[in-house]
Amino acid sequence: MIEQLQQEINELHARVKILQQHIEELQQTCDHHFCGDSYFVKCTKCHKIEVLYY
Ligand SMILES: [Zn+2]
Questions:
Q1: What is the pLDDT of residues 5-16, one digit of tens each?
Q2: How much is the pTM?
Q3: How confident is the model at residue 38 (pLDDT cuts 50, 70, 90)?
Q4: Which residues have their alpha-adjacent CB atom under 5 A from ion ligand 1?
């Protein structure tokens, strides 16, 4: 039972990783359109966030 659940969690982790890589790929090819405030901006197209305040 536990092993089954752990295996399912591992599979979900792998799936999340693939989806995150897919998002990163899309964000790399996006011609960003940022809007936001002076602390951070967010692209309205791919939702990439860039922090401006350090
Ligand atoms: Zn973008």
A1: 999 999 999 999
A2: 0.70
A3: confident
A4: 30, 32, 43, 45-46, 48
Pairing of strands 40-43, 34-36: antiparallel
Using alpha carbons only, give the angle 18, 5, 8 rounded to the nearest 5 degrees.
20
Q: How many domains does the chain have?
A: 1
Spatial distance between the Cα atoms of 24 and 27, rounded to a whole number of angstroms? 5
Distance 43 CA to ligand 1 centre (A): 5
Question: What beta strand segments (E) does the chain contain?
Answer: 34-36, 40-43, 49-51
**Tokens (6 digits) for 22:** 């897919």
Residue 54: pLDDT band with limits 50, 70, 90: low
- Which range marks the domain in which residue 33 is found? 2-51
